[in-house]
Amino acid sequence: MARRQGLRGFTLVELMVALMVMALLSLMSWRGLDAMGRAQSQTQARADDVLALQSGLAQWGADLDAMATELATAQNINSLASPLEWSGQVLRITRYSNSGELSGLRVVAWAMGEDQGRKVWLRWQSPLLQSHAALQRAWLQSALWAQNPDAASRALRVSIVPLVDWQIYYYRGGAWSNPGSSSEAADAIPEGVRLQLTLPEGLPLSGILTRDWIRPNAVGAKS
C-alpha cells in the first residue's frame, strides 16, 4: 500500500516573513500615494498663485484703461485734482464702470497692506457712484482705507498676492520717474504708469515683476 504523503503547510517563520513583506509593500505604496498627493496639492497651489497674479494684473490694466481722464479738466469736479493720484502708499483711480443696466463712476485704490499677518497687494473699490457728493466721499474713503480701514472698508477690498514691496513710476517728459519728482503739474495725467512688484520667494514667480501701462492717446511713450 502506497504511503500517503501529507500536505506541507507554511511554517511560522515563512508566514511572518510574508506578512513583513506585505507590510513593507503597503508602506511603500502609502508613501508613494502621499508624495503624489502633496505634489498635486503644491502644483494646484502654484497654479492658483499664478492665476491670482494674472487676474490682479489684468484688473490693474482694466482700471487704468477705464480711467475717467476728462475729470482732470472738468469744471464741476473742483475737489478732485486728478482721476489718478499716487500718495506714496496708495494709487487711487476714478474710473468708469457698468453694473448691469446701471453705469457710473467708481473709485478704486491699490496698496500694499496686511492680510492674515502677511504683506499682500490689495485692491479696494467703492460702490457704483452717481453723484458728485458720493464721488467726493468715496475719494476720501479710498485714502483712509489704506491707513486705518474699518470693517466696511475691509469688506470692499480684495487680496491679490503676497508682496515684499512695490513701486509706482510715471512716464513724463520722455522718461520714467517717481510721480512726485516731475516738474509738471501734479494733476496732469501721465503718459504711462509703471508698476513694479517685488514678489517673495516661494511663489511660482518671485523677484521683481514690472508691468507698464501706456495711455492710449499718449504720444512717444515707451516701455
Q: Helical content, roughly?
A: 25-40%
The major sheet is characterized as: 5 strands, antiparallel
| Distance between the ends | 104 Å
Q: Tell me how many strands there are.
A: 9
Q: Walk across the major sheet and give the strand order.
A: 1-2-3-4-5
C-alpha geometry: elongated
> Helix- and strand-based class?
alpha+beta
Please mark out the parts with pLDDT under 50 across 5 or more consecutive residues, or reply none. 73-78
Secondary-structure element pattern, one letter each: HEEEEHHEEEEE
- How much strand content do the residues show? 25-35%
How many helices does DSSP assign?
3
Overall mean pLDDT: 80
Rg is 30 Å
Structure write-up:
The chain is α+β, with helices and mostly antiparallel strands. The chain has a domain at 66-214. The protein contains 3 helices and 9 strands, in the order H-E-E-E-E-H-H-E-E-E-E-E. The strands form 2 sheets. It has a 5-stranded antiparallel β-sheet. Strands 7-6-8-9 form a 4-stranded antiparallel β-sheet, with helices on one face. The longest helix is centred in the first third of the chain and has 54 residues, at 12-65. The model is unreliable at 73-78 (pLDDT under 50).
